[in-house]
């Protein structure tokens, strides 16, 4: 595997995403936020900031997830279907470099998009801060331009790195549609993780509870790194637990990328 | 050191969903290609030509047997720096322009960025892509895509080039240009390995051919051995044939066929045809064309492919 | 087909399309007029179980909580203006319960929701018990928020008139991290003087100065005006008593006699009413009515 080859493939993936007009999702994001803030100011009884923060983070998460799943599952299968895989794999780069480069490229795309969305997000909150009276602002538990908001944004990024790794993994051997379903399934399961752990309280069968426990440890726990509620409410965050959660997800990502290279290295491209 | 060699190269594909059975696409192919040769890899459609080339490029993995390029095993990443490959019916990233695509590939070959633009421009000139090089590939015709494919195959000034059906999609002018390009590559010392089901191309260029049918090597050899230099006869086409001329012909010719508009095709024996020509002109006939008849590649091909098919039938 | 005929064909197609659209909309409107949509059913939530909803919402629970909160605000506002005679505020508690379960730290929803819920009919459903449920739930999720205890105490004081319980809550709140010192004062005042006007005034004054929410400040101002009106009525009744028995009892008589400088008005500017029998009440259109039961003892 060569770092320079990975870099070149990653940049190519990023450029393709720009040509595919992925950044237009930013426009969607900005429009959603602005429309929401205009429409809802009479409905929130002074809770505008909280709602904007929740909406902004949720929209970033949703848009990022869509990008990650739709593009991630097509990264390999589109190339195979288009038959452009023949000309690229005949070049002096290893298959591992190629697939890792594809993954890194999509992560780069997501990072740039998230970054731009974060800028639009802060701009929106600054506008809200300017147009809100001071005595309402007194009641805000966290400020408008809260730098800590970057933490949930970054953690959304980590989550998306995981879903992208899942998507790429499935795309090395499965059709785009199935890959999308599997990836979405893993994302959903990652949020139900907590319930799996405590399955014995819901069901009587010890065997089922043991199986659920096992699944809990095997599946990535995405809700463990979700700090949105704490940051929006200005509450303390258990950083150590979150840090361990991130490290655990990083290991999962490693497993998935390694698995992707393993499968991709053995595949016949007829 | 051989440029390309294979030893018992075999590929089985598993076919069928419920109970997959092996289908032998390539059966113990053993080849040797000397450096600097133009090697024609011929066979009917579905014979296994693309399979063999893909095995050499490690796009698929052999069930058994070995393949080496420039002395290194086929899967070696570094040897691909010295190799070019044109896949059959090539497709590329269609949102890129020809220049961008080649520039990207050039970067993968570690061509320094200062030299990239000139290298890309030179290669595009060589394959005949003009101002379209700045338009996205999705707007290209099939012939233009083929030219881009050839361009990316020779971009790295390779020592060995694999062309899988290089003439497909090209008009007669394009085919001539590709033939000339392949000969230029040979002149530069490059080994050209190309597959085709069109024999006239091979006949014109190859020093060696291999014929493959139903996954098996049917025959291989030097073109000179296969074709022989002996003239077996002459094909003469004449018009303005008077009855006097016709009478002359019936004595000398092995066969006379009327074509159209007063033209006749005449099959003359191998002896020098000058005497017959002189007699015909004094009889008022005019020569349209005169071609020597030799054993053709097509004869060779048909004979060997038919043989292979015949051998196969009892075992099925 | 020539370009001209193709253009004509396309024009006709566009016209047909427009006509069909108009027809469709007109038919829809006509149908609505002839058979109006079924009369107001009791509105209900599609998702009934807050904890199940929390699971379904996955990582979007906070946003869902906001949506339920906004629905609660709209519902409350709508119901206050409604003239229906029964079934009002039916969704208020379920919506607030949803919002506070989906986001267990949504203190504003719990605290303002408690105010909405305790407000007496017709300004609210008059359910201080539900208000307490909401606040207790908030406290369970955020045991260090003294504001919850303060609000619980307040509900018990003002709406349930359970002074010992209220005092105990204020006392406990005063011991919680970050609690302001006047909570202890409130505990003492409540215990000592229970439902008298001064303690009530103290409580509302504190709320006015410390409340983070605009709505709460408005509520406090309103209550203080009511208490001021009670003061006015006491004073006026004392004045009127001196003229008891007079047949021509009216404000002008008192003004003429020098007892008053002008027709007395309540803190919102509406004149007080003096009946022929000598009773003094709030003016007919005053928004301060009905005056609270608490604080009638001076």
Summarize the topology:
The complex is a heterotrimer of chains A (270), B (316) and C (298).
Chain A lengths: L2 H17 L4 H17 L7 H35 L2 H5 L5 H36 L3 H4 L12 H22 L4 H22 L1 H4 L3 H13 L9 H5 L6 H27 L5
Helix pairs in contact in A: 1-5, 2-3, 2-5, 3-5, 3-7, 3-8, 5-7, 5-12, 7-8, 7-12, 8-10
Chain B lengths: L3 E12 L5 E13 L4 E5 L6 H8 L7 E6 L2 E2 L9 E4 L11 H11 L4 H15 L14 H13 L5 E5 L7 H16 L3 E6 L2 H7 L2 E6 L2 E7 H5 L5 E7 L3 H10 L2 E4 L5 E5 L5 H9 L3 E8 L3 H19 L1
Parallel strand pairs in B: 3-8, 3-9, 6-7, 7-8
Antiparallel strand pairs in B: 1-2, 1-4, 4-5, 9-10, 11-13, 11-14, 12-13
Chain C lengths: L2 H32 L15 H7 L4 H21 L10 H11 L4 H12 L9 H14 L4 H13 L4 H12 L7 H12 L3 H14 L3 H28 L9 H6 L16 E2 L5 E2 L17
Antiparallel strand pairs in C: 1-2
Arithmetic mean of pLDDT of chain A? 87
Globular, elongated, flat, extended or rod-shaped: what is the shape of chain A?
A: globular
Give the SSE string of chain A: HHHHHHHHHHHH
What is the helix fraction of residues of chain A, given as a range?
A: over 70%
Low-pLDDT segments, ≥5 res of chain C: none
The unreliable regions of chain A are none
How helix-rich are the residues of chain C, as a percent range? 55-70%
Number of strands of chain A: 0
Distance between the termini of chain C: 97 Å
Instruction: Please state the oligomeric state of the protein chains shown.
Output: heterotrimer
Q: What does the largest sheet of chain C look like? A: 2 strands, antiparallel
- Proportion in β-strands of chain C: under 5%
Radius of gyration of chain C: 28 Å
The structure class of chain A reads: mainly alpha
> How confident overall, as mean pLDDT of chain C?
84
Q: Biggest chain pair contact, residues each?
A: A-C, 32 and 22 residues
Summarize the entry for a quick read:
By secondary structure, chain B is of the alpha/beta class.
How does this structure look, described?
- The complex is a heterotrimer of chains A (270), B (316) and C (298).
- By secondary structure, chain A is mainly α.
- Chain A contains twelve helices and no strands.
- In chain A, α5 (95-130) packs antiparallel against α7, α5 runs antiparallel to α12 (239-265) and α8 (176-197) crosses α10.
- Chain B contains ten helices and 14 strands.
- Helices cover 61% and strands 1% of the residues of chain C.
- Chain C has helices at 3-34, 50-56, 61-81, 92-102, 107-118, 128-141, 146-158, 163-174, 182-193, 197-210, 214-241, 251-256; strands at residues 273-274, 280-281.
- The chains are: A mainly alpha (270), B alpha/beta (316), C mainly alpha (298).
- Chains in contact: A-B, A-C.
- The A-B interface holds A 4-5, 8, 12, 16, 19-20, 82-94, 266, 268-270 and B 13, 54, 57-61, 77-78, 80-81, 83, 85, 87, 89-95, 104-105, 107-110, 149, 152.
């Amino acid at each position: 595997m060569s770092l320079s080859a990975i870099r070149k493939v990653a940049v190519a993936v990023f450029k393709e995403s720009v040509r595919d007009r992925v950044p237009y999702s930013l426009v969607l994001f900005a429009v959603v936020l602005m429309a929401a803030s205009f429409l809802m100011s009479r409905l929130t009884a002074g809770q505008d900031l909280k709602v904007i923060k929740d909406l902004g983070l949720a929209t970033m998460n949703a848009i990022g997830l869509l990008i990650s799943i739709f593009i991630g599952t097509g990264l390999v299968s589109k190339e195979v279907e288009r038959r452009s895989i023949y000309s690229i794999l005949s070049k002096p780069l290893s298959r591992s470099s190629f697939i890792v480069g594809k993954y890194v490229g999509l992560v780069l795309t997501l990072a740039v998009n998230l970054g731009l969305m974060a800028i639009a997000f802060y701009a929106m909150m600054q506008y809200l801060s300017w147009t809100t009276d001071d005595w309402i602002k007194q009641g805000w538990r966290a400020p408008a331009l809260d730098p800590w908001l970057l933490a949930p944004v970054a953690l959304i990024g980590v989550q998306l790195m995981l879903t992208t790794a899942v998507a790429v993994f499935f795309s090395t051997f499965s059709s785009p549609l199935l890959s999308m379903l599997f990836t979405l399934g893993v994302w959903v399961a990652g949020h139900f993780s907590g319930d799996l752990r405590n399955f014995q309280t819901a069901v009587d069968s010890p065997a089922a509870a043991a199986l659920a426990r096992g699944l809990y440890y095997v599946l990535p726990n995405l809700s463990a790194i979700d700090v949105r509620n704490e940051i929006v409410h200005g509450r303390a965050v258990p950083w150590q637990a979150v840090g361990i959660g991130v490290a655990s997800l990083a290991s999962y990502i490693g497993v998935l990328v390694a698995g992707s290279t393993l499968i991709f290295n053995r595949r016949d491209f007829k | 050191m051989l440029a390309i060699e294979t030893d018992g190269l075999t590929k089985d594909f598993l076919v069928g969903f419920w109970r997959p059975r092996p289908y032998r696409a390539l059966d113990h192919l053993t080849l040797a290609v000397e450096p600097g040769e133009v090697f024609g890899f011929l066979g009917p459609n579905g014979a296994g030509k693309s399979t063999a080339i893909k095995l050499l490029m490690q796009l698929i993995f052999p069930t058994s047997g070995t393949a080496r390029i420039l002395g290194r095993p086929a899967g070696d990443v570094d040897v691909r720096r010295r190799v070019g490959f044109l896949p059959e019916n090539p497709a590329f990233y269609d949102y890129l322009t020809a220049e961008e695509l080649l520039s990207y590939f050039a970067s993968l070959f570690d061509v320094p960025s200062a030299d990239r633009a000139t290298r890309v421009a030179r290669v595009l000139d060589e394959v005949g892509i003009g101002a379209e090089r700045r338009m996205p590939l999705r707007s290209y015709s099939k012939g233009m895509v083929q030219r881009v494919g050839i361009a990316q195959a020779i971009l790295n000034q390779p020592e060995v080039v694999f062309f899988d059906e290089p003439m497909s999609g090209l008009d007669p002018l394009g085919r001539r240009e590709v033939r000339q390009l392949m000969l230029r590559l040979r002149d530069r010392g490059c080994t050209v390995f190309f597959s085709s089901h069109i024999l006239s191309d091979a006949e014109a260029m190859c020093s060696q051919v291999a014929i493959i049918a139903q996954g098996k090597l049917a025959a291989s050899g030097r073109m000179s051995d296969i074709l022989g230099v002996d003239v077996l006869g002459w094909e003469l086409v004449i018009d303005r044939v008077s009855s006097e001329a016709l009478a002359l012909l019936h004595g000398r010719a092995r066969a006379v066929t009327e074509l159209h508009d007063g033209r006749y095709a005449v099959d003359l024996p191998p002896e020098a045809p000058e005497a017959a020509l002189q007699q015909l002109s004094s009889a008022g006939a005019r020569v349209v064309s005169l071609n020597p008849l030799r054993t053709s590649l097509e004869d060779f091909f048909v004979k060997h492919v038919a043989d292979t098919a015949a051998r196969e039938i009892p075992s099925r | 087909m020539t370009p001209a005929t193709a253009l004509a064909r396309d024009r006709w197609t566009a016209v047909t399309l427009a006509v069909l659209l108009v027809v469709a909309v007109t038919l829809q409107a006509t149908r609505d007029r002839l058979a109006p949509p079924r009369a107001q059913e009791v509105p209900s939530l599609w998702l009934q179980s807050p904890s199940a909803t929390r699971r379904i919402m996955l990582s979007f629970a906070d946003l869902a909580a906001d949506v339920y909160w906004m629905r609660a605000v709209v519902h409350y506002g709508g119901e206050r203006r409604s003239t229906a005679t029964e079934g009002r505020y039916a969704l208020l508690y379920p919506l607030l319960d949803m919002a506070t379960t989906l986001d267990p730290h949504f203190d504003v929803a719990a605290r303002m929701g408690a105010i909405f819920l305790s407000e007496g009919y017709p300004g609210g459903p008059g359910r201080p018990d539900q208000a307490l449920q909401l606040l207790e739930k908030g406290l369970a999720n955020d045991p260090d928020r003294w504001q919850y205890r303060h609000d619980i105490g307040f509900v018990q004081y003002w709406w349930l008139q359970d002074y010992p319980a209220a005092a105990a809550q204020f006392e406990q709140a005063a011991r919680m991290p970050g609690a302001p010192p006047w909570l202890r004062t409130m505990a003492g005042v409540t215990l000592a003087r229970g439902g008298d006007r001064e303690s009530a005034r103290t409580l509302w004054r504190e709320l006015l100065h410390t409340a983070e929410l605009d709505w709460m400040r408005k509520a406090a101002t309103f209550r203080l005006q009511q208490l001021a009106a009670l003061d006015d009525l006491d004073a006026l009744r004392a004045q009127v008593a001196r003229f008891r028995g007079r047949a021509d009892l009216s404000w002008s008589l008192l003004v003429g006699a020098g007892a008053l400088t002008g027709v007395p008005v309540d803190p919102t500017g509406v004149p007080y009413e003096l009946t022929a029998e000598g009773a003094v009440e709030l003016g007919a259109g005053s928004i301060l009515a009905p005056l609270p039961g608490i604080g009638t003892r001076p």
